[in-house]
Each structure stands twice: as C-alpha cells, then as structure tokens.
Design brief:
eight-stranded mixed beta sheet; seven-stranded mixed beta sheet; 18 helices
Amino acid sequence: IGKFFNNGNTFQIHHHLPLKMETNFQSLRILQWNILADGLGEDGFLSTEFAPIHENEDEDAPSLGSKKFMESIRNAKKDDKENGILEKMSKAKKIKKKLRELDEGTPDYVKEEETMLALNGEVDKTSALIKLKKQFANSPELDLVEKEILSWGKRFERLKEVAMAANPDIITFQEMDHLHQFITDPEFGKKYTCCVDETMMMNLAQEYYTPAKYNEKGEKKSDELRTDNYLDHLLKSRVAFAPKSYSNARNFRLKRMKDSPSEEDDKTLVDDDGVAIFWDKEKYRAVELGFLKHPDSKKKSEAIVAVVLEEKKTKKLINVLSAHFPSGAEEKKEKERLDVLKNNKKWTYKHILLREKSESDQPKKSIWVVDNYGDDAKFDGIVSYLKHYVGREKMDLSKTIFPTDVNSKPEFPLTTLPSPVDVEDGVLTDGKTNAWKFLQSIPNFECVWVQSKILAPGGNSINPPSFPISVNKMRGPSSDQPDKIGEHQCELTDHIFTSYCRSKVIDKVTLRSTKIEVETAPKMYESEEGKAEQELYPTMIMPSDHLPVIVDIELAQTASS
C-alpha cells in the first residue's frame, strides 16, 4: 500500500528507509510513546481522512468539507464557552462523580441527582456542541473513523508495526492497557520483554503476566491493587509496569463488553492502563525493579516505575524511569503535575535487587531481594527519585533516562509550587516554575529536545513562529464527553530527559511490510488552526493521538573517531 486517501484526494507516499545514526559512536535507541489506551480510544477522536462529512447515509444528505467541519466545531465550542454552557457541563460532571460516593436513595443523593438532571436538561436544550452532536449522530464518515482508525484491533497491529520498524533498544509506553497482548505477541514478545525475572520467563514461557484481580462484588479489601497492597503486588508480578488502580480505561472496556458482548471477550485480561518499560532481551538483563507510589488520593494508586538494565556485553548499567503526569490545560492541573514532582506528603517506595547467592558445594544462583532503598532514602516526589538514580553515576558509572508524557508544554505559564522547596531545587522567577522547567533544572540532566536544538534551554522554540508538537488531537461530535468536543490539544508533551550528553532525534521510520513512511515527533506548526486541524491523530497510519518519540543517545566514541 503506497497510497492513502484524504479529503477525496489520493496522495502518493514517498518511500524512504530511515537509517540508525550513521555515526562514529555507539548509540542507544529509545522509543517513548503514549499509545492511547484501548479503554480511552473509542471516544469520538476526530480525523479528516474521510471527507466530506455527511450528516447521514442519504444520497442527498447535507455535508461539510473538512475545513468547514472543523470551523463549525470551533465555533460551537466558542459559543458554549461564552454562554456558560461549558461551566454547566463541568458542574454536572462533578456531581455525577460525587454520586458514586453517596448511597442511592439518601436525601443527599436525591438532592445532588436533581441538580445534575436539571443542569443536563438545560445543556441539552441550549448547547451548540450538543446540537452538532445530534446533527452528525449518523454520519457514515465519523462511523468509519471509529471502525477503521480507533478500533483496538486495527490500532494494535499498527502500534506494533511502528515499534518494530523503529527497532529500539528500550521502549517506554504510557496508557498501556493491553500488556498481556504485547507480551504474548509472537513477534513483539520474541524481541522485547518487561519481565525482570528471567527464571520466571523460562518456566512460564510468555504467560508470566496476568492483569490484577478485582473483587466482582466490589469488596475492595481483596483487590490486588488496593492501596495497602499496591507496591507488594507490583513487585511480586516481576514486570516493569505501573498500572493505575480502578482506572477509567479498565472501567470503560468492561462497560463496552457489557453493552456489546462478544464470544472473544475475556474479562480476566481486561487491564488498567499504566506505564510500561520494555527492553531488547538479547542485549539487556534487568538487575533492579522499583516503584515510587503517589501519596494516597481518592483510594486510587499509581506509581513511577524504575528498572536498572545491565548491558550483557559490557556490564554497563542504565537506569530507566517513566511516568505519566496528570492531564489538563488549566493552572490547577499544572499544580497537580508540580505536586507529583515534589510535595511533603507521604510517598511510599520499594524495589527488588538481583543478588548472587552462594552455598557450599553449590553453584551460585541469582535471587531477588526486597529493599526499601536503604535506611537513608527519603523521596518527596519524582524529582528526588530521579536525583537518586542520576546520583548513582558517582558510585557505579550508570546513566539515567526518563522518557515520559509530562502532559504539559515547556512554555506553560509559570506556577507557584504547591510545596516549599530549597533554592537548589531549581525554582525560577519569584518562586515559580512549570513541570518541564522543574525537570530540566535537575543537575546533570537534560531534555533531548534541548540537546537536539529543537528547544532552547528555557523551553521556547528555536525557530519561531514554528513550534514543535508531539500530540495533535480533538474529540468530535461522536464523543460521549460533550464538554471535551472541540478541545484541541496541539503541543509538545512527550519528552526524554537523560544524563547522557548527546542525542539525535529520528524524524521518521519506514514500515517493513508496506514501506510506508511514518512521521515521528516532533512535528512543526505555526498555528493550532488551519493545517494542524487537518492533520489530527490518530489516522490510518498513525495509531495514537501522540506521535512516537524516537531518539538515538550517544554512549561512547568508537576507536575510529
């Protein structure tokens, strides 16, 4: 397949085989990718690949070209904001969440429910977005987007193909809710693993992971990911995966199964979405696995995952950490992101270490030992956790990599940190900073966008008015979240921070089966409107709303240099 269709036109894709760094130094290839969870993916994400967009299947049905269609969504969003409709949607949504914590039938429940129904009724009558949603409810083009672009069956194969074409040494995924499928896939699972225990892998083949179990009756005391058991369960699983307990992704998938049952459904394989780290198992072995758990909040749990890899040939160590930050464009959401970087609440953490055990007249064998990072360890957020690993270089010459979806752009307005910090923690003007700048301020730690001359050290674009992006998405009229329809996210949220000194961004990969060229982050735009709105993700080629970030990191000069 060398062609694809867009807005009724046919385009020829130029074939180009990407090269790994043609260099005089050894390199380490990293793939960082928020893959868009299956449970979160079928929610009306827009694509203009099928255009014009008709209201229904009738031959003479009214339609809009892609440009006019995007304008209508933008205008409807603007009208609802000016008329206070978005605020009413938000209030109704908060009440709906509150009702889950109240006993049905109680006076408080009835009162809150009446308020929510009144708000929803008013929104339904007056919202321009709701009107647009009803207008295109039976659009065949929007239905095609759901079936051909957003369905997990199609997206999984495309995700896997892009990852294999990139040929990375290390992979970090966010919004992973099909870990078992990736592990057991004959092609992907043959090359990559996220299991630290090689003995477990050999004994159980590829069936070494199953999703955490929840009590079907809602009795959380027996849930494997309950707050008091979260870290122990993660370490016992022996995989570099930190799921979000009681996640929306899992709940939405279960609801989808209930609404549209299928013989292929297997509820035991329905997983929470989370952060996963994979590595080439022929090149590396894991010698440490650790987790830093967020302070308890709303009885849900999530964590930062850390794995230490030993290169089998050289015995050199690489510390790989990854996380997924809270999302949202409001200042309060940036405060949430800063809060996970540093706060004075109670953080919990554990890790397991691979140790050699020897007994008399017996060969040495490797065992995993549980540890709390030593008696002196005290972490108060992601920054301190990263500093711990970066600081290990003085002892074991290890290097540290932190690929992540910060969910915040480098030029986000500076915000006051929720917790007081010391001067050396990198707080900027008047005690303010943002999530990206706080991470960039860690000593001997730098973002690859800066190393590759895409961003200036302060986070602004090197070539204005063009700006780099790694995510470009918008929900359309078929979304079940009307308040999010028309919310355009077009920014650079995916980053790789490292203690290595040099790196090079790979701007494209070529699929092996079709020779189709796939763009990687960053992509450059001069405006969020116009061209950016015509190139939203996911697409028939790009299976996520985020572009993959592929970077070659320099390890050491070769003799020839």
